[in-house]
Amino acid sequence: MDFARYFHVFILTISLSTIAVSNLSAQEEDEPELDISKPTNFYTFLDNNLETTFTDGANIYGYRANLTLSIDERNLMLIEAPLLYNDASKTFGIGDLRTRYFYLPYKDYSKLFGAFGPSVDIFIPTGNAENGLGSGRWVIAPGVTAGLMVSETIQFFPVLSYQYVSKSNLDSIPDSENESLNGVSFQVITPIVISERFFTQITPVLALNDFREDDSFRYSQEVLLSYGIKPTLWANLFYRGTFEDDIHTIRLGITIYL
């Protein structure tokens, strides 16, 4: 493990975040208000999170950076990189990288059916699975997102995704048991706007991780609380629980809109 290399990446990310915050402080007070509660509104931002994941066999602590680039109103790209520490294996390193592309050909919030577009998420197994820092599998998940504009304060964004999971790169799994998986997930991102500077997103997630196995069905619940310190600087608290597997993740973060 090259601890120095990962530490330098961490310091560089924090330095860039500090520079961005300094630039934000120098901007005029009449910054435009951003409507960030809707996942179909595209912005460029840097998301910095401290996170903890509690599992039955280990606790994982770390930092997760998320750089989202709004190419234009219809095209969005994302890259996410975690630096993690597993207290069971006593190891520190990079986790699995995630990339995403989202294309939004239709958006009209004046109508009930207010948005629609396809996306694809790719998880790259850069984390060491033997040490509990990654899954050891490629994940490719194309999907479609729609937007239902129920009211000014509450909307529903259902997301239906197909999920392909490659064979594991773990040597400890026998070839006879090492199979790729095909599944599907359905979630509904539900923003609830409390005020101009505070909103929550409640997202139930239903997933069938392998079409061949009935017991691969999982229910997860995600909750995001977000408060605007200023229009381009938001503080976030996130929770995700996969209850059947007893896995719980908590993140505390700062989002800087650029």
Q: Could you explain how this protein is built, in words?
A:
The chain has about 260 residues and is mostly beta strands. It has one helix at about 5-25; strands at about 45-55, 60-70, 75-85, 90-95, 95-105, 105, 115-125, 140-150, 155-165, 180-195, 200-210, 215-230, 235-240, 245-255. The protein has a single domain (about 5-255), classed as monomeric porin ompg (Porin). A hairpin with a 5-residue loop joins strand 6 and strand 7 (about 115-125). It has a 12-stranded antiparallel barrel. The chain contains 1 helix and 14 strands. It starts with a helix and ends with a strand.
Quick gist of this model?
This protein is mainly beta and 258 residues long. Helix content is 9%, strand content 55%.
- 3D shape: globular
CATH homology-level superfamily? monomeric porin ompg
Please compute the radius of gyration using only Cα atoms. 19 Å
Proportion of β residues?
over 45%
Order of H and E elements: HEEEEEEEEEEEEEE
Specify the helix fraction band: under 10%
Overall strand count: 14
Average pLDDT confidence is 91
Top-tier CATH class: Mainly Beta
Stretches where pLDDT is under 50 for at least 5 consecutive residues are none
In what order do the strands lie side by side in the largest sheet?
A: 1-2-3-5-7-8-9-10-11-12-13-14
How many domains is the backbone divided into? 1
Number of helices: 1
Indicate the multimeric state. single chain
The largest pleated sheet is described as: 12 strands, antiparallel, barrel
Distance between the termini: 34 Å
Give the CATH topology.
Porin
* Class by SSE composition: mainly beta
CATH architecture: Beta Barrel
